[in-house]
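REQUEST FORM: STRUCTURE PREDICTION
Request ID: SP-0412
Submitted by: Lab K.M.
Chain count: 1
Length (residues): 713
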Amino acid sequence: MMTGRLADLAAWCRERPLVCGLAGFALLVAGGWVFLQATGVRSIGYAVVLAILSAVIGGFGLLLLNEPIAHFVGRPGNRRLGQLLGAGGVVGGIVVAAVAVWLASPVIALIGSVLIILGLLAVYAGLVLRGDANPGRWLIGGLVLLVAVPVLLWIADGVDGWSIAAAVVWVAGLVSFKIGLGPWIDQAEDPIRERNDVAVTAVAATAVGLVLLVIASRSFDEAILLIGLALVFVGLSALGIAIVRFRATRAIGYWALALGGLAVVAAAVLVDGLLSPFDLVAAAVLALAGIGAWFVFRGEAVIAVLLLGFLLGWVLVDRTSDADLSPTPASLRTVVAFGDSYIAGEGAPRFFPGTNRVGPDGNQCRRAPTAYPYLVADRLGSDLVFLACSGARTADLDGEGDPPVPYPDVAGDDDQLQRFAILHRDRIGAIDAVLVSIGGNDVGFSTIIQACLLPQNCAAEEAGRVERWLENVRRSGPTLTRTFQTIRQTVGDDTPVVAMLYPAIVRPDPDCDLAIDEDEIDFVARFTEALNAELRASAEAAGVNVIDLSDAFDGRLLCDEDPATNFIQLAPTEGPIADRLLPANWTHGSLHPREDGHRLIADRLIDENGTGELADLIAAVAAGGPANPPPGSASQEEPNPPVYQELPDDEWIRDRLYETVADLILPVGLLLLGGLVAAFGILRIEVPILSFLEPGGSRSGSDPVGSDGRSTA
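STATUS: Completed
RESULT:
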C-alpha cells in the first residue's frame, strides 16, 4: 500500500528531520533550476516537458519538506515559534522577490519563491492546528476577506501597490476559509449532510463564477471579472475540501478517474479548436488540469506561489545580447539599415541592450544581432549603422509623423533619416548599401497579424473589411515613393538604396495544419503579394533598387515542417514588472522571421562565399555602374487619408479577443473540474508515483495521510 510507504517515509523523516529537510530543500531548488532552463528553450513542447519535470521534482521536495516542518510546528512548545519563523520566511521571501525584480535576477526570484513556500508550510501547519478550536471564526473571516478583496482590486484599477496588497490579503482570506471549512464540516451535527451541502454549494458557486466570467468577457466589466474569478477559485477550493471526505471504494475511484479524464480530453478537443500550435495547447491543458488536481492534493496556495515564482523567474530571464552593436566597427565601409520589424530582427530570442523595453521610458525597436543586416555587414566586412525599429512606418523614417521619445543612450526609435543625417552624415561616400524594409505597418499589417492569430476568421467579409485592407495597400504607393525618394536624397545618388520586398510566410495550401482557416491563409498570401507589388512600383518610380524576397522562405513556409517564421512566439519584455507580466507584451515576435529565416535572407543577399544579389550590385557599382536605376514614371495617384485610420480595427480586435476568451471559459472550467475529479480518483485507487501527492500532513505529525482523508492545504 502506498499509504504504508508514505507512513514509513514520514517516520524516517521524523527521525532524521535535518536530512529530510535539506533533501527537500535541494529538490525544490533543483525543480526551480530545471524550470529556469525551460525558459530558454525555443520549442514550447520541450519547454512543457521540462516544466512538468520541474514540477515533479519540486513536488517531491515539498513532500519531504512538509513532514519535518509539520512535525516541528506540531510540538506544543514549538507552535508559536514555528509560525513566527514561517511568517518571517514569507516576509523575507517577498523582500527577496522584490530585490529580484529590482535586479532583474531570475535566480534571486527563485530563492524568494522557495522562502515564501517554506514560510507558508510552517504558517499553515500551525494555523491548521488552531482551526479545530474555532472553525466558524476562520470560515467567516476568510469569507469577508474573499468578498472584500475583489472590490479593492477593482478600485485599484491596475497593477500597483494597492492591488498587490489586496492580492496578498485575498490569499490570506482563502487560507482562513480553508482552515475553517474542514473542521466546520467535521464538527457539524450531521457531517455527511454538511459535506454534501458544501459540495453542492461549491459546484453552484463555480458555475455562477464561470457565467460571470462569460459576461465579463463580453462587457469587460472589471468588477464582474474579479467576482467571477473569486467565485471559481473559492468554489473549487471548497469542492476540493468536501470531495476528499466522500467515502468511496476503489471501483468508484476508477470511475472518478475515468470521468475526470474524459472531461479533460473533451476540454482539450475544444481548446485545440481555438488555440494553436499543438504544444501550446498541450501546455495549457496540462497546466489547467494540474491546477484543478491541486485543489484536492497539497494546496492551491503553495502551488500558486510555486507557479507565480516560476513565472516571475521566466519574465526576469535576461534576453539581452552581449554582441557588439556592429560586427566590424573599425571598417571604413558601412551598411545602413532603415525600416521596420522585418529588418530589425523581431522574432529573435535576444536583442541589443535597451531595445526590448516597455513602459514610460521604453524602446521596442528590438534590434537583434541575428537580423540579416548584421549578417550582411559581417560578411562584407563593413560597419553597420542599424536604425531600423519594430513598428516603424514611413513617417518614422522621413519625419512626417510624431515619433516616440527615444530610450536614453539607444540610437534610434525616432526619425531614422534625421538621426542618420545628424550622427552619420560623414559616412556618405563610403556606404556599401542602404537596406530598406518599410510599408507593412503603414497598411495595418500588425493589425492583420493580431486578427489572424485569434480564433475568429480575420478574412471574413465583415463590412468589407478585407477589401478595405487591400484598398489601403493600393493607396500606399505615393507615400512609399516619397519615402524612397527622401532616402535617396539623404544618402546621395551615388549610394545604392535597396528596397527589400517582404518574404511570403504562407501560400495557399489545402493541407496546411495551422490553426487558421484556409481563407485566412489565402488572404495573408494575397495581402503580401499586393504589398510587394506596390513596393516594387514605388521603388521603381523613386529610382531605387529592388530585391525580391517573396520566395526566400519557399520550402520553409509556416505550413512546412521546419518554418523559417515564428507562428506563435512567447517572449516577455524588459521594463516595469507589471509590463513584464502582461501577456499582451509576450507575443511581439509572432509571425516574424526566426534567426534561421534571417540567415536565409542574408544568404540571398550575400552568402558565405561572397556571392548573392546584393554582392553583385555592390560589385557592379564598384566597377563604375550606376548605384541606382533612373526614376520611373510617377503615375501613382495621390493618396487619400489612410483607410486603416477610418476602420475601428482596435475595437474590432478587442471584440474578437473577448469572444475568444468567452469561448475558452467552458473548456477551462472542464479542465479544472476534470483535474479535480481525476485527483479524487487517484486518491481512492492509490496510483503509484502520483499518490505521494495525497493530502496529508497529520496534525500530530504521526501520519502523512490523515485517517479521515482530509486535505492539509
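NOTES: Residues 649-685 form the longest helix (37 residues).
Reviewed by: T.R.
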